[in-house]
Automatic annotation (TrEMBL), chain A:
The keyword rRNA processing applies. Residues 1-34 are annotated as: Disordered. It comes from Pongo abelii (Sumatran orangutan). This is Exosome complex component MTR3. One of its GO terms (biological process) is nuclear mRNA surveillance.
TrEMBL record, chain B:
It is found in: Cytoplasm; Nucleus, Nucleolus. Pfam families: RNase_PH, RNase_PH_C. The keyword Nucleus applies. The gene is EXOSC7. InterPro entries: ExoRNase_PH_dom1 (IPR001247), ExoRNase_PH_dom2 (IPR015847), ExoRNase_PH_dom2_sf (IPR036345), Exosome_comp_Rrp42_subfam (IPR050590), PNPase/RNase_PH_dom_sf (IPR027408), Ribosomal_Su5_D2-typ_SF (IPR020568). One of its GO terms (biological process) is nuclear mRNA surveillance. This is Exosome component 7.
């Protein structure tokens, strides 16, 4: 990897042998477009973080930790009218700093740790999706740090990271309006393009377009939306958004149960 | 982005006006401000364009350089985007302040061009696996007056329309060494087809309605916006929600339809202006920065 001579002693550039191999991967089989992979969610597993969550969906494994609230750097003096419910005025509102990191062994090709623009784009997407849900006005001059670590990319990584981050924030006891649930979609190419919910890595690689939606299920508000590719006309994208929102609603009970279990565990540990 | 100080009364005024389809400068909710586009303003580039949209001023320069193609796509060239938010746009961009916004805009540009149909990358290939054209698209933000994404996408499309890449041939010797030959005629060049290059339409949610082409003051009143990238045929290539607030699913569908409608009109007028400017030929009067 260019530049990192202290840790890696080897040639400047290296490629995995799969690039030169003949293309003999099996094509993803036909499946129900609305199936969601079984999800394992656990909150409250890291001892050093204020709140944490681990989410596994198919081959995608994400670990998220929340720390804070601590004093924000570069504070500004603020004034102006206070918001409703005793919240701080706009200039004193808290900040949410999100960080998205991909482990170097997460994908098929090794990616050096400072991932560059893709990770920053996903971190920005995380922040834009989590901000509507967190009551930042209740944390004046403070900042909350959310860091998501993708351990293995098995498809719809951003959606899993969003869900894990929202669970971790809830586990940390941060005041929120609602949980944020994320869902990924991809458009399978071909003569009759169909949108597939919760794609695997293979389906995502062969897709003509991809979309991630984040929903606040109880309020029924879309907190985040990020999609690109040759999705076609607006009707096709609208259908994809509807499918994604429905998937998010179906995922919500699983997350509620994991939070209840974490609270019980914490209660049982505190007793003796 | 540049922040503007608005009092509560001004915000209420803007929001109530938008509900009645009447904005502060008299436009309707789906009207753009007056756009001025001029191409071929910088002489050292392969193509350039300058766009003025109200108070927003963008300068784009495209430079074509030869390089090696990417390993996964050996028969294609590629585009590299770089956005520079200079301190002259607003004092907040001094030093490293504008870097975050610049990276965000560059990432959005990569996303909207990230599909096979936007630009025909095979025309940029010189010899497979060895040489290809890399187009470095550099965007310079000269003045920030709201609605940056739209102005930048218009400028990028105009600059790519204006880009002239010299025709190059790779000759092989008997020993197998390759020699690159540039054509003698300086006007013999490849032009890119910009038919399918998308333009971004940003729709800001203000109150219960959404507006196109928001000024800085209107952006301060809006909590959430939807960014839609539309081609001239109405095909959507990218969608993104921007901002701190959340959106209702129904408003997202409405905003997509508006974005498609407005985008088609924008493309039609941009195409006609670009063709008209080109038909004036090399003798046309260049306004540049003096107008």
């Amino acid at each position: 990897m260019p530049g990192d001579h202290r840790r890696i002693r080897g040639p400047e550039e290296s490629q995995p042998p799969q690039l030169y191999a003949a293309d003999e991967e099996e094509a993803p089989g036909a499946r129900d477009p609305t199936r969601l992979r079984p999800v394992y969610a656990r909150a409250g597993l890291l001892s050093q973080a204020k709140g944490s969550a681990y989410l596994e969906a198919g081959g995608t494994k994400v670990l998220c930790a929340v720390s804070g609230p601590r004093q924000a750097e570069g504070g500004e003096r603020g004034g102006g009218p206070a918001g409703a419910g005793g919240e701080a005025p706009a200039a004193l509102r808290g900040r949410l700093l999100c960080d998205f990191r991909r482990a170097p062994f997460a994908g098929r090709r090794r990616r050096a740790p400072p991932g560059g623009c893709e990770e920053r784009e996903l971190a920005l997407a995380l922040q834009e999706a989590l901000e509507p849900a967190v009551r930042l006005g209740r944390y004046p001059r403070a900042q909350l740090e959310v860091s998501a670590l993708l351990l293995e990319d098995g498809g719809s990584a951003l959606a899993a990271a969003l869900t894990a981050a929202a669970l971790a924030l809830a586990d940390a006891g941060v005041e929120m309006y609602d949980l944020v649930v994320g869902c990924g979609l991809s458009l399978a190419p071909g003569p009759a393009p169909t949108w597939l919910l919760d794609p695997t890595r293979l389906e995502e690689e062969r897709a003509a377009a991809g979309l991630t939606v984040a929903l606040m299920p109880v309020l029924n508000q879309v907190a985040g939306l990020l999609g690109s590719g040759e999705g076609g006309l607006t009707e096709s994208w609208a259908e994809a958004v509807r499918l994604g929102l429905e998937g998010c609603q179906r995922l919500y009970p699983v997350l509620q149960q994991s939070l209840v279990r974490a609270a019980r565990r914490r209660g049982a540990a505190a007793q003796p | 982005m540049a922040s503007v100080a608005l009092s509560e009364a001004e915000k209420v005024y803007i929001v109530h006006g938008v509900q009645e389809d009447l904005r502060v400068d008299g436009r309707g909710c789906e009207d753009y401000r007056c756009v001025e586009v001029e191409t071929d303003v910088v002489s050292n580039t392969s193509g350039s364009a300058r766009v003025k949209l109200g108070h927003t001023d963008i300068l784009v320069g495209v430079k074509a350089e030869m390089g090696t193609p990417k390993l996964e796509k050996p028969n294609e060239g590629y585009l590299e985007f770089f956005v520079d938010c200079s301190a002259s746009a607003t004092p907040e961009f001094e030093g490293r302040g504008g870097d975050d916004l610049g990276t965000e805009i560059a990432n959005t540009l990569y996303r909207i061009f990230n599909n096979k149909s936007s630009v025909d990358l095979k025309t940029l290939c010189i010899s497979p696996r060895e040489h290809c054209w890399i187009l470095y698209v550099d965007v310079l933000l000269l003045e920030c007056g709201g609605n940056l994404f739209d102005a930048i996408s218009i400028a990028v499309k105009a600059a790519l329309f204006n880009t002239r890449i010299p025709r190059v041939r790779v000759l092989e010797d008997e020993e197998g060494s390759k020699d690159i030959e540039l054509s003698d005629d300086p006007y013999d060049c490849i032009r890119l087809s910009v038919e399918n290059i998308p333009c971004i339409v940003t729709l800001c949610k203000i109150g219960y309605r959404h507006v196109v082409d928001a000024t800085l003051q209107e952006e301060a009143c809006s909590l959430a916006s939807l960014l839609v990238s539309v081609t001239s045929k109405g095909v959507v290539t990218c969608m993104r929600k921007v901002g701190k607030g959340s959106l209702d699913p129904e408003s997202i569908f409405e905003m997509m339809e508006t974005g498609k409608r407005v985008g088609k009109v924008l493309h039609a007028s941009l195409q006609s202006v670009l063709h008209k400017e080109e038909s004036l030929g090399p003798k046309r009067q260049k306004v540049g920065f003096l107008g």
